[in-house]
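User: Hey, quick favor. My workstation is busy. Could you predict this chain's structure for me?
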Amino acid sequence: MIKGNLVALVTPMRRDGAVDYPALRRLVEWHLEQGTDAIVSVGTTGESATLDEKEHCEVIARTLEYVAGRVPVVAGTGANATTEAIRLTRCAAEAGADACLLVTPYYNKPTQEGLYLHHRAVAEAVDVPQILYNVPGRTACDMLPETAVRLAQVDNIVGIKEATGELERIQAIRAGAGPEFAIYSGDDATGCEAMLRGADGVISVTSNVAPAAMSEMCRAALAGDREAAEAIDRRLAPLHRNLFLESNPIPVKWALAEMGRIETGIRLPLTWLSESCQEPLRQAMCQAGVL
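Assistant: No problem, here it is.
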């Protein structure tokens, strides 16, 4: 089971929108130096919604190449068409991904039975560990804890990223699915408390800009050291908040560009961070000690 700080890595782009693979390699090396426990490639923060299928698979393959087995790589392979999710998951599995992260089918608004059948179909089609991803604020689709518990019985569905920020859900899933089913917070603002209540880690946006601090906080929380974990989390709290002043990954890409780690590339319909949001985010970065 992967535990700790899993960075939801951005996909760096040049100003013309082309994927910047040298910058991706540099980001991977930096995260390994900073103690990041695992890398999530081409999730929401990685702009999966604007990469075409070929690019999607190539970014995953390049990330695996650059990581070279030093930490686990989780590939984002969800889609709102089950057949597309199967293709992406198969592509990631063939490239050597340690696990795949599958967001609930967005826009379609399936029933709970539809969610169960969708994820079971992907799991039965591709023999790779799979992590469910529930983020109803972006998908208009909410996987209820009882559906997650039901899917936990499928052999290669091994965990869930629960991004509602509702801590009671994490406890309900843990109670129903048991200790071997991995639970990751997908909400930086509540990630520390989620781990203190039994989650196994956080799939983090904040970790893009403060990887060492996030890793240290995760280690403390997983060890049950509430005082140490909360002390770090308080320092990061403005980042947790201000990295969502506009839609993710707009603020985090701006922050990384301010740090000199990526160019100012992002794809429409996303736009560069509004000027009014830049100073609050800059102050949060200063408080966190990253700028």
